[in-house]
Amino acid sequence: MAYADLYARWKADPEAFWMNESRAIDWVRAPSRALFADRAPIYEWFADGLVNTCWNAVDRHVAAGRGSQIAIIHDSPVTGTVHKITYAELQDRVARLAGALAAKGIAKGDRVIIYMPMIPEALEAMLACARIGAIHSVVFGGFAAAELATRIDDAKPKAILAASCGIEPGRIVHYKPLLDGAIDLAAHKPDFCVIFQREQEVAQLVEGRDYAWHAFQYGVEPADCVPVEGNHPAYILYTSGTTGQPKGVVRHTGGHLVALNWSMRNIYGVDPGEVFWAASDVGWVVGHSYICYAPLIHGNTTIVFEGKPVGTPDAGTFWRVIQDHRVASFFTAPTAFRAIKRDDPEGRLVGGYDLSSLRTLYLAGERADPDTITWAQDKLGVPVIDHWWQTETGWAIAANPVGVELLPVKLGSPSVPMPGYDVQVLDEGGHPVPPGTLGAIAVKLPLPPGTLPTLWNAEERFLKSYLDHFPGYYETGDAGYIDDDGYLYIMARTDDVINVAGHRLSTGAMEEVLASHPDVAECAVVGVADALKGQVPLGFLCLNKGCDRPHADIVAECVKLVRERIGPVADFKKAVVVDRLPKTRSGKILRATMVKIADGETFKVPATIDDPAILDEIRAALAGLGLPAR
Ligand code: COA
Ligand code: AMP
């Protein structure tokens, strides 16, 4: 068995395994060893190597004579355009942007925030930062000004690169006013901003602070690649945690290059030159790893898709893109397939396209329900591979390693651990449990190359969030079990993170916003089941004594407040007013019980509940919202 041999080979000598894989990367100075454990449990990979990510993702392919290969295809049904960029053109565009940034004082280690829609310039901005050793932090366009401000204050960028607007079906997303608002809100101010003006909306520039994308680059000296240490941060990507303060996941340069390059052949089964498509957004980790870096590092063609699975113009868009660009390997979130299935249940549109180039479909970002997988398999006639990972890991913890060996697919399981990950299911005391037993999923330290070494400026929080609970392990925050064949099953989060349409969101962050409403005394947000999006947030509001305003008004204001503070992506549209929240005698809100009631699941009334009668009040309030739905 090729997979079993590979995994055993890694386990027998992780150092040799990763040193060997590191040879696929061009180093300015090769690392002397793979793992640096002197500060354990903080581990680093390839720390003393010297390398440049942009060189490996762009220049080396041009140097190898592949400059005329298409690097990026921008396929944008929302603007009705398709635009292709070769590796040689990409090199030129990135070197000029990097040169302009360097000319304005951006140097190795400086932070640059990128707030852009799905356009090639977003990838060029990321690569330009990598070229000069600047550390980028991409912020998803569906976040509101206040969320952007939080990230500005944490990352303290010298520059912000943005576009004038994004395009959502039926509306323009006004990026520039959002950016201006965020800079006003933030205590830290960037030295300058560079704005890519789109014809759908031309933004007003602030004199002396903002530069237009092209004028900014006029007449500058293109920048060469600056070698950085293997443990130099390539980027910071903020992700949701338990509180409103997002966690700044740090990615080191060397391990990132090695792991992503390894994954393209071994997990995604593609060869250099083939077309790889991840339909996600550059604002998420999937976009970082599999729209931008991995396909380019590996010499593939990547697709920047600016559209939705349905409605742009119809549920056949994905098939059109696969046909037009001869996509070999396709990656998206299960929600996208649920949306397509809802619009085209028989999969009639599939038949209208030539999908002969497609070999495999990959799903991640949320639990892939068996119905969706079966539907996709039936309609597309290719293996559908669920794989499990997180912003923190940057690449798959568990997958079906198609490029090594296609293992039998088990519905509901993202298959088996990848080399580098010693995955264990633990009980509360930190002891491994037998197969089939539910527990907290943890990974034995060290984590492999490409995963987070720490949180930005928050090492204590890193230790507390991930390493303290189970000493010697990384706590994933997911619960599940391993079956007798070693297949993993991911069942739920163990924290207050919910997953809405493949987007990771913090209920704690939403609660902080709701609590700021003047009429709200106490609140709770939980994630309830949703047929399309997997989960959606639902708010419970307890009002201040004496508040006699109409509940519908307060709910509407709360919905608006979350949209304004966190952004449309939070998808917070439902809330109910209740007299009290169910709590334990020690005052802990019984969120899991509220979820069970909303989802119509049977449950045992917790023995620690303060007053069981409250559960009937919750039931009645939810019935008013039509919950449970089934
Ligand atoms: N910029 C601004 N707003 C955005 C945005 C962006 N980049 N992305 C989403 N939004 C907005 C949407 O317009 C929507 O706003 P609305 O409340 O005014 O309708 C809101 O955020 C919620 O978006 P979403 O959850 O995506 O719902 P949707 O109804 O627009 O689309 C799907 C539903 C299933 C089509 C869509 O969620 C989808 O394509 N999901 C795939 C998931 C995915 O790619 N996940 C990435 C991780 S792998
Ligand atoms: P993110 O950091 O946004 O990628 O979200 C990571 C979380 O999404 C994980 O911790 C899981 O809870 C969930 N997730 C991602 N992929 C899967 C999957 N294949 N199956 C089940 N849950 C998943």
Q: What descriptors fit this protein?
A:
18 helices, binds adenosine monophosphate, 630 residues, alpha/beta, five-stranded parallel beta sheet, seven-stranded mixed beta sheet, GMP Synthetase, Chain A, domain 3, binds coenzyme A
Description:
- It holds the Pfam family ACAS_N.
- Belongs to the ATP-dependent AMP-binding enzyme family.
- InterPro entries: ACAS_N, AMP-bd_C, AMP-bd_C_sf, AMP-binding_CS, AMP-dep_synth/lig_dom, ANL_N_sf.
- Residues 3-57 form the Acetyl-coenzyme A synthetase N-terminal domain.
- The chain is of the alpha/beta class and 630 residues long.
- The protein has a domain at 501-623: 2-Layer Sandwich (GMP Synthetase, Chain A, domain 3).
- Strands 6-5-18-17-19-20-21 form a 7-stranded mixed β-sheet, with helices on both faces. Strands 8-7-9-12-13 form a 5-stranded parallel β-sheet, sandwiched between helices. Strands 24-25-26-27 form a 4-stranded antiparallel β-sheet.
- β19, α12 (334-343) and β20 (360-363) form a beta-alpha-beta unit.
- The longest helix has 17 residues, at 87-103.
- It is globular, with a radius of gyration of 24 Å.
- The protein binds coenzyme A and adenosine monophosphate (AMP).
